Amino acid sequence: QDAALIEAAKKEGTVSVYTSTDSAQSQKLQDAFTKRYGIAIAYNDLGTNGAYNQVISEAAAGQVTADVVWSSAMDLQMTLVKDGYAQEYASPEAANIPAWANYKNILFGTTVEPIGVIYNTKALTEDRLPKTYADMITFLKNNKTELQGKVATFDPEKSGSGFLHHSNDARQRKDFWDLAKALGEDGAKIYSSSGGMKETVVSGENVMAINIIGSYALDWVKESPNLGVHFASDYTPAFSRLALVVNNAPNPNAAKLFVDFLLSQEGQSALAEGGLPAVRKDATGGLNIDTLNERVGGGLKPITVDEGLLDYMEPTKRVQFLNDWKAALGR
Amino acid sequence: MGLRIAARQRARAALLPPQPTAKATDMNVQTQNPALSAVGVAHAHHYPAKMPVVGNARLYRIVVIGLLALAVLTPVGLIIYQSFLTGPFFSPRAAFGLDAYSYVFTDRNFYKALGTTTVSAFGMVAIAVPLGGLLSFLITRTDIRFKRLLEILVLVPMFISSIVLAFGYTVSVGPTGFLSLAMRDIIGIVPWNIYSLTGMIVIAGLSHVPHVYLYVSSAMRSLPSDLEEAARTSGASIWQVSRDVTLPMVLPSIVFAASLNVLLGFETFGIPLVLGDPNGIMVLTTYIYKLTTLFGTPTYQLMAVVAVVLLLITLPLVWMQRRLLRNARRYAALGGKGARVATLKLGRNGQLVALGIIGLWLFVSVVLPIGGITVRAFVDAWGEGVNLLDQLTLANFVRLTEVPSLVRGMINTVILSVVGGAVAVGIYLLVGLAGHRNHGLSNTVLDYIVLLPRALPGLVIGLAFFWVFLFVPFLTPLRPTLFSLFIAYVVVGLSYGLRLLQGTLIQVAPELEESARTTGATIGRTWRDIVIPIVRPGLAGAWALIMIIFLREYATGVYLMGAGTEVIGSLMVSLLTTGAMNTIAALALISIVLTGAGLALALRLGARIHD
Amino acid sequence: MTELVVNNVQKWLGGLQILKGASFTAERGSIVALLGASGSGKTTLLRCVAGLEQPEIGRIVIGDRTVLDGERKIALPPEQRNIGLVFQSYALWPHRTVRENVGYGLKLRGVASAEIGSRVQAILERLGLGHLADRYPSQLSGGQQQRVAICRALVYEPRVLLLDEPLSNLDAKLREEARYWIRKLILDLEICAILVTHDQSEALAAADNILLLQDGRIVQQGTPQEIYSNPNSFYSADFLGANNIIKGRVQTLDGAKATIGGEGWSLPGVVRDAAGVSGNSDATAVIRVEQISVSDKAMEGGIEMDLDDSIYLGDRWEYRLHRGGLIAKANGALQIAPGKVWAWIPSDAVWVFPAQK
Amino acid sequence: MTELVVNNVQKWLGGLQILKGASFTAERGSIVALLGASGSGKTTLLRCVAGLEQPEIGRIVIGDRTVLDGERKIALPPEQRNIGLVFQSYALWPHRTVRENVGYGLKLRGVASAEIGSRVQAILERLGLGHLADRYPSQLSGGQQQRVAICRALVYEPRVLLLDEPLSNLDAKLREEARYWIRKLILDLEICAILVTHDQSEALAAADNILLLQDGRIVQQGTPQEIYSNPNSFYSADFLGANNIIKGRVQTLDGAKATIGGEGWSLPGVVRDAAGVSGNSDATAVIRVEQISVSDKAMEGGIEMDLDDSIYLGDRWEYRLHRGGLIAKANGALQIAPGKVWAWIPSDAVWVFPAQK
Ligand SMILES: Nc1ncnc2c1ncn2[C@@H]1O[C@H](COP(=O)(O)OP(=O)(O)OP(=O)(O)O)[C@@H](O)[C@H]1O
Ligand SMILES: Nc1ncnc2c1ncn2[C@@H]1O[C@H](COP(=O)(O)OP(=O)(O)OP(=O)(O)O)[C@@H](O)[C@H]1O
Ligand SMILES: [Mg+2]
Ligand SMILES: [Mg+2]
């Protein structure tokens, strides 16, 4: 660790983080950081759109207050980078994270969060659940009567995460559209938030929800006895919460120190403890990239942090995708 | 436009003193008074010029209404400006153009959403207004039992934001709600479906009854009973009295409550999001919501266009409202002859029927959603095949206290609603007085700007305020403080609070003010010593209302809150995305309890003033 | 036929007993005037009859229906009592035009709208309001509002008409016309009316019977002439008529005859309320102003007095007289110059009562 | 000294001209009574003086300040005019006790609170309200409220006092007391008062000057005696006094003397308003009731008439007489049995006016 950086950061005394991670999940991380450096965190949980919006608005107004943006909207983060809102920072910890998680020392993946399925244990049993991606398509097709109107998934039109999950699948898998059609045949219901989906599955209103954020789900099942989580063994995509240091950040040193800490073993362990699986292998206290891979059956396929994320930021392509999606779903 | 305003003023003028009309001119000419004929020639075809109205606090009125207009029109203007651009207004790439309009107006989904919204808004009004009027009548004008308790219970549906409310309904009467399951056990099927347009309308309608109740009841409370007694001695039964005297007398508040509810219907977000969205029932607000992510990055110009459409809807509403209420004096009834205020006797059967109606309504709109929330707050699992008793836990509440931002959020919310609410009522009162017995252009301005902020979805107005505080230089230091939230809340609460006060102000008989003036009080003194004390019960009511509104407001704060300025409502929105429904339910329950306590306090204060 | 029976009605308001057992009856086709000092409970009594207040104790019968019975806990609501009430405060509905205000009672009774129109117009014309039918109450003068209130209560021809100072804001001419016409209507329709008024000449002229209310109790009841010429208490004597109130001392007392006197004067009179009047006690005498005749010429049996002033009253002159502590007013047709005059006071016009505080 | 000048005040309300050029002056220490039919504009005129309405045309001066000038566009607000106004509708503040209602004007004038207390109590006692000081207006009877309104306007001793039927809800005794006391106060304080009243005896007794308002114009102005005995128009003659209105035909006309008659009767009289009265034209005569003396004994110069009825009026009897088309009322002290009577009508008491519709 660079002592000068720490010194300068302490002088700044505070770091302002714009994030979509709710503070319950990151409380351990925040506490650990503040305890270690005595630097206060102004923790702004703004949601993905809120964070993006505030950063670009502040920049335009010349009133930048954000130091670090730490958001799960990978595509929006990449857009910020591309549009020049982020500054390069060669973190000494960058070497300890996988290469796919480091985009040109500007954008860093901090977590690896699997995308999976949740189901109501009173309605479905573990053994009935399909093992692979392809099985899932068959399963949906074969149990139409049982599942009619009782399958939930993200609405890519209203949810940025949903769009990311679906469009990533579409990029990775040719049979994605078969899945979409199968969902359509089951009369799947679409939701704009994880919360909405979880609640309906907990209550049995929906039997299962597909393409849900698995890291959350792993926590949920601890509390809700009638909820189960499931991952396909051959293909479990995972997204990552990306962090960047904002251009002209008012507290650049504290910002850099915070990013360092996010990627450090201590920070990663604190994240894992809060239920956000660490991208580092050596993180303890919860799932890390290796233990997670085991947990999901070995098919973990993290989404690479690269320009590919911007594919669907292009309006025509995006609209095309959404139209295809709606057509497949029969809406 | 200018011409039309002038014409309207003239039409209105005919009912207000002193007014020029053709008839008056004729008489003027005919008069034989010699002193006049000299002047009369000059005035032959003119009505004598109006005398200047002095001592009428003109400057005060102009300044206050001007400031208010500034506070409302700045964000609104920003939205309108944004709608004519091709990108975010602050982006160097943004250019003028109607692209956004052409996108929205050629989008099939927009029309579908508009249609659905219209149906649901008017459906909601059709349920809420009659029920609200009936409730107000029963509670304020009759000797119905349990009045004190009912007064609070009736407002409970307002305690919670519509998202939480809708969520509460899913827990109780959703497809696997505890009541639905019980019903299915008894008759085999669940005879209702809340995930439908009808379900949305009924729920929205029932839960907006308090919005009507508040306005109408405060007007009814100050109605002297001799008017009703006169009708009863003429042979009218209680119901005829309420239909023929009480309701028409409070027409201004009913009309306002109706137009406000139409707007609320257009603006409501939580209920369609939770109940309509999964089945693809889309309304304008969820349509706007979609526009924030549809293109990856937020498309402000499209949102702005839809917001402009919503703004345009207010104009005919206000116009109609103004026409209906042209002759305000007709509703001034708080006369100078100290009439005794007595309540109508319901009789035994009347009591039973009335309590039955209220009980049923309370069951549907209070017990069901709040029961749902309460159940959810104390369990981790529910629904099909789950025995709720096995699931009881306090963990959800314990978790709240562990997260500093949630604790801060609760404190901030209480400060903002209790203190901020009181200050806001003070501000509304200043504005209300500025418009009181004022018939000029400034009053027209007031009428229109009052409803404007309510037409905009909270999310949009919050965003606009965020920009205002970001881009207006001397405001920037206020952005990270609660003050920015407060200002936005004041504007959002304007249509609720100001109108409530205006409705009460209108009922103060002019003689009461005139007698103070002739006794030697200036207009300011008159307001302070006569008008304000007379409307004080209304003030307490307004405070209670604003407190509730601020407590449960969620959308406005989404963009404005930051570290240290969290508020419960907006925190719940972000919790929704991570799926922490347990926490949301616990938070909601706490905020319901807080609201109930605050309201009881406000009513107590108001009550003491009233007796 | 008896149309209205009020029996021992007692009513508390704000912790005070306002009515302390009021009883009276009223006949069909007659007007009963309810007189009493301001605050004596007239309005409250009317409101009890109308059913707008629920007396705690008492019984009220209208026609052949018991509308109130404190013991049997019967209390019909106002709308079932078939009454008409003119409020002291008018209580016009500000949101309705004059026509609508007046027509409302008919509408409630299901009268065809054409007939409503003509009946309303007729009654409005009757009281000189025909041209104001489309105005709102706030556009009327006080007297016009009052007349509308009268029309509203009368138009549907109720069984019992309750009038609370219905003419107080009308000028003499209009008042007389309205009174005449109300009286006629009441006789024609054979209804019964209770008229609260503060104007005794109105009560004396218009009523068949007068009730005198004092402090929540009816203290005297009778025809106008009875009440006027046979008051049974100082309150009754004093309340009606224009009076000279004379404080003195009983000088001689012989059965109902007494002489009351003071410094330099004494007057023979009759005792009207014996309780508290005894030889040499203080007493108060009441002499109706019109009973004293004054002349500037010596008069046999007259008392010599000083005239301080003659005041013009339009149809007559008022004389201010005194003799020692005896101060009196009297009327006459002529102006008399101040100075010595002779006053003639018949001894049966000097009513002696116990001393009043 | 002239305290109030009202000059050519014109006012429109709701598109109608309500005041059509009212002018008058009022002196310090005097009471001006404003009389006029209901709806003639009395209240409106008072409101203009008070500054509650802004006349479009006219000038009003109070003391030495021009408070209104239509041409120079001056219009002082009510609170700068130093007036007191008693509203026809009382306009008591419902949220204040009687004491607070009355004390408000003093408080505004910065009087020390101890003094306020004593002055308020004194004035309340004066009008018999001392025990009600802590009540709210809604707990008072109508007459009590009215008295509170009077106290409120008087307590701070304004320069000009405007009273809009201030005594209409009081009974005769109370009214007389209040009137007497108001009058005394006005003389003592040397203020000037405009009294609107519908009660002509009140106007005649209390006022130094009477203004007669007809349809927004002042048609006659003078001392009570002038107005009563020298009316210049039918409206004036008819408005005041108790009158016999007699329709007939002019039979002879000789300067101011005329004989009016009809079927079976004729009366000599004087012409009071010549416009429209000519030989053989229709005419209307006004005879004050008190001018006719009636006797059941033949009287020289008397007219033989039929007495239909004697009606008891308390202090006197009213006789209903007729002779052919001549119908008249007269008063007397005695009851006379129906039948033939003789009426004596002085010819200068028969006022002949043009025929009225
Ligand atoms: N706002 C209004 N619009 C139209 N006409 C009005 C309005 N206000 C009053 N008037 C009319 O003006 C006339 C004068 O009213 P005002 O109150 O001055 O009468 P008034 O002489 O006081 O009568 P009263 O003795 O009955 O109180 C009335 O005929 C009334 O109908
Ligand atoms: N709510 C109340 N609380 C206490 N006292 C009351 C209340 N209402 C009326 N009173 C008192 O009851 C008494 C009778 O009132 P009421 O109105 O019947 O008098 P009234 O005879 O009609 O007098 P007026 O001639 O002045 O109208 C009054 O002394 C009044 O002060
Ligand atoms: Mg009364
Ligand atoms: Mg008037």
Automatic annotation (TrEMBL), chain B:
<feature type="transmembrane region" description="Helical">
    <location>
        <begin position="530"/>
        <end position="551"/>
    </location>
</feature>
<keyword id="KW-1003">Cell membrane</keyword>
<dbReference type="InterPro" id="IPR035906">
    <property type="entry name" value="MetI-like_sf"/>
</dbReference>
<keyword id="KW-0472">Membrane</keyword>
<feature type="transmembrane region" description="Helical">
    <location>
        <begin position="557"/>
        <end position="577"/>
    </location>
</feature>
<feature type="transmembrane region" description="Helical">
    <location>
        <begin position="300"/>
        <end position="320"/>
    </location>
</feature>
<feature type="transmembrane region" description="Helical">
    <location>
        <begin position="192"/>
        <end position="216"/>
    </location>
</feature>
<keyword id="KW-0812">Transmembrane</keyword>
<keyword id="KW-0997">Cell inner membrane</keyword>
<feature type="transmembrane region" description="Helical">
    <location>
        <begin position="59"/>
        <end position="81"/>
    </location>
</feature>
<feature type="transmembrane region" description="Helical">
    <location>
        <begin position="482"/>
        <end position="501"/>
    </location>
</feature>
<feature type="transmembrane region" description="Helical">
    <location>
        <begin position="584"/>
        <end position="607"/>
    </location>
</feature>
<feature type="domain" description="ABC transmembrane type-1">
    <location>
        <begin position="410"/>
        <end position="602"/>
    </location>
</feature>
<feature type="transmembrane region" description="Helical">
    <location>
        <begin position="352"/>
        <end position="379"/>
    </location>
</feature>
<feature type="transmembrane region" description="Helical">
    <location>
        <begin position="250"/>
        <end position="275"/>
    </location>
</feature>
<keyword id="KW-0813">Transport</keyword>
<dbReference type="Pfam" id="PF00528">
    <property type="entry name" value="BPD_transp_1"/>
</dbReference>
<feature type="transmembrane region" description="Helical">
    <location>
        <begin position="119"/>
        <end position="140"/>
    </location>
</feature>
<feature type="transmembrane region" description="Helical">
    <location>
        <begin position="410"/>
        <end position="434"/>
    </location>
</feature>
<comment type="similarity">
    <text>Belongs to the binding-protein-dependent transport system permease family.</text>
</comment>
<keyword id="KW-1133">Transmembrane helix</keyword>
<protein>
    <submittedName>
        <fullName>ABC-type Fe3+ transport system, permease component</fullName>
    </submittedName>
</protein>
TrEMBL record, chains C, D:
<keyword id="KW-0408">Iron</keyword>
<dbReference type="InterPro" id="IPR017871">
    <property type="entry name" value="ABC_transporter-like_CS"/>
</dbReference>
<dbReference type="InterPro" id="IPR008995">
    <property type="entry name" value="Mo/tungstate-bd_C_term_dom"/>
</dbReference>
<keyword id="KW-1003">Cell membrane</keyword>
<keyword id="KW-0472">Membrane</keyword>
<keyword id="KW-0406">Ion transport</keyword>
<keyword id="KW-0813">Transport</keyword>
<dbReference type="InterPro" id="IPR003439">
    <property type="entry name" value="ABC_transporter-like_ATP-bd"/>
</dbReference>
<feature type="domain" description="ABC transporter">
    <location>
        <begin position="4"/>
        <end position="240"/>
    </location>
</feature>
<dbReference type="InterPro" id="IPR050093">
    <property type="entry name" value="ABC_SmlMolc_Importer"/>
</dbReference>
<keyword id="KW-0547">Nucleotide-binding</keyword>
<keyword id="KW-0067">ATP-binding</keyword>
<dbReference type="InterPro" id="IPR015853">
    <property type="entry name" value="ABC_transpr_FbpC"/>
</dbReference>
<dbReference type="Pfam" id="PF00005">
    <property type="entry name" value="ABC_tran"/>
</dbReference>
<dbReference type="InterPro" id="IPR027417">
    <property type="entry name" value="P-loop_NTPase"/>
</dbReference>
<dbReference type="InterPro" id="IPR003593">
    <property type="entry name" value="AAA+_ATPase"/>
</dbReference>
<dbReference type="GO" id="GO:0005524">
    <property type="term" value="F:ATP binding"/>
</dbReference>
<comment type="similarity">
    <text>Belongs to the ABC transporter superfamily.</text>
</comment>
<keyword id="KW-0410">Iron transport</keyword>
<protein>
    <submittedName>
        <fullName>Fe(3+) ions import ATP-binding protein FbpC</fullName>
    </submittedName>
</protein>
